[in-house]
Design a protein that fits this description.
Elements lengths: L15 H52 L20 E2 L12 E6 L9 E6 L2 E2 L15
Antiparallel strand pairs: 1-2, 2-3, 3-4
């Protein structure tokens, strides 16, 4: 038969107050960490669009060097890149195919409250004034 030491009697675990404090601290940490995590995830998805559009820009420049004008469809380009998973791709637009082009990709139903946004690109690269992406989501260029 075991005998209990009177000093350790009643000290076998955490009190309800201690557990409550731990749960509150974990809740506060989660409140601060989850939005930051969601922003990082959405920024990674936005980077996918920037990578895709940068590759299109390079292919457009090669096409222009060969033919003297920009391609009017992605199928004319010498690049085989998969479409971005999280964006829908628009079509090329231009007022003068010999000097300019523009392409927009759109993010529909973006998570974490970012909403829908677009990224616009042309022969000069990323067009901030014609894009609706939040500054927080811009990849470091």
């Amino acid at each position: 038969m075991k005998t209990f030491n009177k000093i350790n009697a009643g000290k076998g675990g955490f009190s309800l107050v201690e557990l409550t404090i731990v749960v509150v601290i974990l809740g506060v940490l989660a409140m601060m960490g989850v939005p930051r995590y969601q922003k990082v995830v959405e920024r990674a998805k936005a980077a996918e669009a920037f990578t895709y559009l940068a590759q299109i820009e390079g292919a457009q420049e090669r096409y222009n060097a060969r033919s003297g004008e920009y391609a009017q469809s992605i199928g004319q380009l010498d690049v085989s890149i998969p479409n971005p998973k999280h964006f829908s791709i628009g079509s090329f637009t231009s007022y003068n195919w010999q000097t300019q082009w523009e392409l927009k990709v759109s993010r529909s139903g973006a998570s974490s409250g970012f909403g829908n946004y677009t990224v616009c690109w042309n022969q000069d690269g990323f067009q901030r004034s014609r894009s609706s992406i939040e500054t927080d989501l811009l990849p470091v260029l």
